[in-house]
Specification:
The complex is a heterodimer of chains A (167) and B (497).
Chain A lengths: L1 H15 L10 E9 L2 E6 L3 E6 L13 E7 L2 E6 L1 H4 L12 E6 L4 E6 L1 E9 L18 E4 L5 E3 L1 H6 L7
Parallel strand pairs in A: 2-10, 5-7
Antiparallel strand pairs in A: 1-2, 1-8, 3-6, 4-5, 6-7, 9-10
Chain B lengths: L1 H5 L2 H66 L7 H24 L4 H30 L2 H213 L5 H135 L3
């Protein structure tokens, strides 16, 4: 009951805020993709390129979210299943033949995806916060939830956090 | 002797009796002969006696006549007396009669007859002279009469007397001889009779003893036989009674059998009719089987045609499926290209975004390319769906075709089976026709046999009825035999044989 009141109170506060019409620069361009059933979005600036990969070479001794490695034009990229990394349940069949290469200029790796759904230009105001009951362990990798239901990945955390970067 | 022993009892008895009869006949013949001989002797004796008597009588008559003539000579007046005359006349007749009688009686003795003939002449002469003398006396000539007497009559008288005595003596002598002979013969006869009688008696006794022995033997055997006859007749009687009952039962059974045969005959008639109708039905069935065989042939060719068509359809569907697969491959290639185009567009957009404000126009181009790629992808998706549908249809068609082919194969198999079944049916029907014909003919034969059996049964019935009658007769006869046996037994007991 108390929690509901707090939620209702925060919503009321949110609605009571003055609506600020943001200009063109306040919008961010996202790449939306699908892994099995989950839809994810990531800011364009973190993406190096999107490639099709026929097969991955599995590496023994790696965590289960690491699918393997792939050679893309002479560069070896490790491929990560973001679903497994975020401990999301996997249902249904998947191709996972597309690799989205994430880069911060230093560290580069790929996220496997079933389908590239397209680009989405979202206003920052249209992005909701991650619910409080979300597992705090992975909360830092999610920067918000789109109105279409896509989880917005935090590119900075992905390229820098030690949980995903294996030495 | 051996041959004699080998003869039958009857023959022996006949021989014995023949011996007795022969002996008796012999005895009778001998007795008769002796009797005849004796009677001849007696007859001769009596004849001789008669002759002697007659001769004596002759002499007496002669004497009487001499006396009467002498009386007349002495007393001629007596001649007037008629009685006296008649007496003399009578004596004359008597003398002549006796002489003639003696003459005829002495035929058997020729020697005496010669004497008798002389005597007869003398007597006749004497009688004649007597008559002359009587006449002379009546005339009164007494002297002449005396002269006749003394000259002739006395001589004649003596001669007659002598001769008669002579004859008599002869006869007596003969009689004595005969007597001696007859006595001798009598002795012989007595001896003969004694011997023959003894032999006869001995024979009769021997045969009687022998016959008695045989009779005793026969009686003993008859006794045993009568016993056996009594028992056997009892047995026969009971057996005949049983047979009579059996014959009566047989007659009843024959009647029942006749009825049954009549029923069987009717049943056979019904069977014959049924066999006829069965034969006709079988014929029809045979025709139907032939028609069925033709139909099966046509059906087989039709199904073969369907099978060929089904094979064609199957081949066509397989080709269609392959072509479909080719289209799917092409479509997936197109989809792949669209996918890669999409990725390229995405990369171009990313690169354009990196270029910042200068890449804005390129971003739009990239977006357009992306949307085209998306359209291509959707179109390929639609084609893929359509192809999937087609594939499903083709697959189901393939399945249906397979099923159809299988059904057709099954149909062919069934039709073949039906053909075989119809062939078997036709064979069976033919067999049935033959069997029906055989049944019909055998039933006809059966009926003919039944027709023969019925009169035969009638004959049997008649015969059994006659048997019953005959057995009744036999029973009566057996009863009589039984009675006879008992009677014989009674007789044997009664006469203590």
């Amino acid at each position: 009951m108390n929690r509901d009141k707090i939620l209702l109170k925060s919503r009321a506060k949110q609605n009571a805020k003055k609506i600020i019409i943001k200009d063109h620069f306040d919008s961010v361009n996202y790449l939306v993709f699908r892994v099995v059933k989950e839809t994810y979005a990531i800011e364009n600036k973190w993406i190096k390129e999107v490639v099709r990969v026929g097969s991955f070479t599995t590496i023994p001794g790696t965590p289960d979210f690491v699918v393997g490695v792939a050679n893309i034009r002479g560069i070896i990229y490790s491929a990560v299943n973001i679903n497994r990394f975020l401990s999301s349940k996997e249902y249904g069949l998947s191709e996972l033949n597309k690799l989205i290469i994430i880069s911060n200029g230093d560290i580069e790796f790929g996220i496997v995806a079933d389908e590239i759904l397209g680009f989405s230009e979202k206003l920052i105001s249209a992005i909701s916060d991650v619910p409080d009951n979300y597992n705090s362990l992975y909360k830092e990798f999610i920067s918000g939830i789109c109105d279409s239901g896509a989880l917005i990945l935090n590119g900075k955390a992905l390229t820098e956090n030690k949980k995903i970067i294996i030495e | 002797m051996e041959n004699f022993l080998r003869l039958r009892t009857r023959g022996k008895m006949i021989i014995g009796f023949v011996v007795i009869v022969v002996a008796t006949i012999l005895f009778s013949i001998i007795s008769y002969t002796n009797h005849r001989r004796m009677s001849n002797v007696v007859k001769e004796n009596s004849l001789l006696d008669t002759l002697a008597y007659e001769l004596t009588g002759l002499r007496a008559d002669e004497n009487r006549l001499r006396a009467l003539s002498l009386e007349a000579l002495f007393y001629p007046e007596k001649l007037n007396n008629i009685d006296f005359k008649q007496k003399i006349e009578q004596k004359h007749i008597d003398i002549l009669k006796k002489t003639n009688g003696l003459d005829s009686m002495l035929n058997a003795y020729p020697d005496q007859e010669i004497l008798m003939s002389d005597l007869k002449i003398d007597v006749e002469k004497y009688v004649e002279n007597r008559k002359i003398m009587m006449t002379l006396i009546s005339e009164g000539r007494t002297d002449d009469a005396k002269k006749v007497v003394s000259e002739e009559q006395d001589l004649l008288y003596e001669r007659i007397r002598e001769k008669s005595i002579q004859i008599e003596l002869n006869l007596l002598e003969m009689k004595a001889k005969t007597h001696a002979l007859s006595e001798k013969a009598e002795n012989i006869v007595v001896w003969q009779l004694l011997v023959l009688g003894s032999i006869l008696v001995f024979l009769v006794i021997a045969i009687a003893i022998w016959t008695l022995r045989i009779v005793r033997k026969i009686t003993a055997e008859i006794k045993a036989g009568v016993e056996i006859l009594g028992n056997a007749s009892s047995d026969i009687l009971s057996a005949v009674t049983e047979i009579s009952a059996g014959a009566a039962e047989t007659a009843t059974a024959v009647t029942e059998t006749t009825t049954t045969i009549e029923e069987v005959r009717q049943t056979a008639n019904v069977s014959n009719q049924k066999a006829q109708s069965l034969m006709e039905s079988s014929q029809k069935a045979s025709d139907s089987a032939d028609k069925g065989r033709d139909s099966i042939k046509k059906l087989t060719s039709a199904i073969q045609h369907i099978d060929n068509q089904m094979h064609l359809i199957s081949d066509t569907v397989v080709k269609l499926s392959e072509q479909n697969r080719t289209i799917a491959e092409i479509t997936s290639t197109v989809a792949d290209i669209a996918d890669q185009s999409n990725l390229l567009a995405v990369n171009a957009a990313i690169e354009a975004a990196k270029a910042g404000e200068h890449g804005r126009g390129f971003t739009i181009v990239a977006q357009e390319i992306r949307s085209l790629a998306d359209q291509s992808k959707r179109a390929t998706q639609q084609v893929k769906e359509i192809l999937n549908e087609i594939n499903k249809s083709v697959n189901s068609t393939v399945g249906v075709t397979d099923q159809g082919a299988k059904s057709v194969e099954e149909g062919i198999r069934r039709v073949k089976e039906s053909g075989e079944v119809i062939d078997i049916l036709a064979d069976n029907v033919e067999d049935a026709v033959e069997a029906a014909i055989q049944i019909s003919s055998s039933t006809r034969q059966q009926m003919a046999g039944m027709d023969q059996i019925v009169p035969a049964m009638e004959n049997i019935k008649r015969a059994s009825e006659q048997n019953v009658v005959g057995i009744n007769h036999t029973q009566d006869t057996a009863q009589k035999i039984h009675q006879l046996g008992r009677n014989l037994k009674t007789i044997i007991i009664k006469y203590n044989l």
